[in-house]
Amino acid sequence: MTISPVLEADLVEADNTTEPRDDSWNWVDRAIVLGAVVVWILHFWLHGFDSLTRRIGVDENLTGWIISDSFLDSIIRSARHQGQSPLYFMGLWLWSNIFGSSITVLRIPSLVAHLASAWQIQRLGESLANRRAGLVAAALLLGIIPNASDARPYTFLILGIIVAARLAISWSEQPSTRGGLAWAAAAAFVLYMHPFAIYALIPQAIFLWSGKRNGATARDIANVVVASGLFVLPMVPQVLQLAARQSTLVIVDLPTIWIYVDQLMPVILAIALVVGIVGNVGLPEVPSRYRRPLLFVVLWASVPATAVYAQSHLTGDSIFVSRYMNGAYPGLALSMGLLFAMFHHGRAVIAALVVFIALLPGSLEPAVSPNWDPAAAIIADSPDAFIVTMSGYIELADSAAFPPSPEFNEYFNAPLRWHGVEQPLNAIPRDLSTKDEQSIRDTLRPAIDRGQPVVLVDVVWRARAEGPLFAEALLLENGYSIELVDFAIGPHTTRFVRED
Questions:
Q1: pLDDT digits (tens, 9 = 90+) for 150-192
Q2: Closest listed residue to residue 149, CA positions, set 387, 440, 366, 468
Q3: Which of 333, 458, 462, 470 would give a disulfide with 141, using CB separation of 3.0 to 4.6 Å?
């Protein structure tokens, strides 16, 4: 195996290479493979089986609703209501119509993409450094991505960005229009999985630019630039729509500098642990052939959080949500892989074990999914009731969404539809502006006028939202009493009756 000419451009043949590059299997590689297998078994035992069979997640309900009808509906609904392009949902619609639409079946493509990502990052780590780097990166990637099997596009984003990195290296090695177009297509696929992934692609662009001496002609580069624009053109209207309503999609406060540092803590912690174990590993001591790839992967691990932090503060609307930075995970795994590739045998094994232990606990925490079953059962037992809902989606905080169109009303009620509720459902706002207050009054007026029983279902995480609390107070003011209350994980269900 030979390292790529571009990555080896600064190689100095000297004794500063601490580990020979060869294809033989030494005891270090076997120990890392064994450790990775043990870690993966532990991870899958604690989290893997549950990841396929646990209750459907908050956003997975939307996936189920988007693909529940026709193929055309899957395109229209995802284009109108999701930050991602329709591409993932189109593919999942086809999958569900062949193999079924249970949540376990819908998660299988993501699980396969997760395993494929480990295989691809192993190949990438091997091309950047050596076999050990690839093995460590693959083992870490399998363990550090939370909820990797969710029926959402994020795992495909990670797979796509790793493939794009491999194609970027290939294009650097063998400049050609064909190679550049392959990278551009892979990068476009990543953006189709989520537009915020552009921040994880920035290090690849820097890598390619810093290696422009690779011999690519101006015509090659121009062709790639034009093709890149054409590849992403179909998603421009959706991105503009997403940008226009960014202020209505805020679910977290503006991040402080400490929250930003905390997001980067896995990178900081892992590097600090490794450097602490092996002693003073300053840049002058890093083997020259590893310097450029190491800089590339560290940027890959840190740029997404930095860019999302900057965008949040520049726009005033916080998007500092961890899933928008998922594209950084491969950079973190590869950073560790390259660091281990430079170490002597014994210290490499110790460092690998320490970092595995340090990084895995966060991903081993079980995902908390709302339990909609009690709410669906209460609604089924109340066939004559008027159903009012606040499902917790961020768009419910947008006063302009009310009164909702029939399609938006179904979007807001996707969780209950997934759980088999067929009765008419009426979404109400989460918050309580003057317009929201009037919207809730208008929604409940028919039921109050008829004295009809009312079932109120609202999602509670930290505390009940203002909209549902106002609806409850309005019903009590109009002579209703609480007949039943159910507290589940997430949904809070109350049945009101009035004795006339």
A1: 899 999 999 999 999 999 998 888 888 888 899 999 999 999 9
A2: 366
A3: 333
Specify whether the CB–CB gap between 402 and 424 falls below 8 A: no
User: How many CB atoms within 10 Å of residue 438?
Assistant: 13
- Grade residue 435 by pLDDT with cuts at 50, 70 and 90: confident
Of the residues 334, 364, 394, the one at which a domain ends: 364
52-70 mean pLDDT? 87
Question: 393 and 293 in one domain?
Answer: no
Identify whether 17 is part of a domain: no
Which of the pair, 108 or 240, is modelled with greater confidence? Answer: 108
Residue 11 lies in a domain: no
Residue scoring higher pLDDT (382 or 34): 382
**Looking at residue 490, which CATH number applies to its domain?**
3.40.50
Predicted pLDDT of residue 284? 44
The answer to whether residues 367 and 294 touch, using CB atoms and an 8 Å cutoff, is: no
- Which two three-digit tokens encode residue 141? 């990637």
Q: Cβ-count burial of 406 within 10 angstroms (0-12 exposed, 13-18 middle, 19+ buried)?
A: exposed
CA distances from 394 to 82, 154, 245, 248, 309 (A): 12, 19, 11, 7, 20
- Given 332, 364, 396, which residue is the final one in a domain? 364
pLDDT at 87: 93
Please state, in angstroms and rounded to a whole number, the distance separating the CA atoms of residues 471 and 493: 13
**Structural domain containing residue 382:** 373-497
Pair 308, 211 in one domain: yes
Neighbouring residues of 351: CB distance < 8 A, sequence distance ≥ 6: 273, 274, 277, 278, 339, 340, 343
> How would you classify the pairing of strands 454-459 and 481-487?
unpaired
Number of domains composing the chain:
2
Quick one: 472 and 429 in the same domain?
A: yes
By the 8 A CB rule, do 172 and 179 touch? no
What CA–CA distance (Å, rounded) separates 163 from 157? 10
Do residues 450 and 379 both lie within one domain?
Answer: yes
Tell me which DSSP letter residue 397 carries. G
Phi and psi at 33, nearest 5°, equal -60, -45
Q: What Å distances lie between residue 462 and 60, 373, 415, 489, CA to CA?
A: 21, 20, 19, 11
> Do residue 289 and residue 429 come from a single domain?
no
Q: Is 258 exposed, middle or buried (0-12, 13-18, 19+ CB in 10 A)?
A: exposed
Ranges 21-35, 286-300, 329-343, 449-463: which has the least confidence: 21-35
Query: Do 185 and 232 belong together in one domain?
Result: yes
Q: Does residue 144 belong to any structural domain of this protein? A: yes
Q: Judge whether residue 447 has pLDDT over 70.
A: yes
Please report whether residue 12 resides in a domain.
no
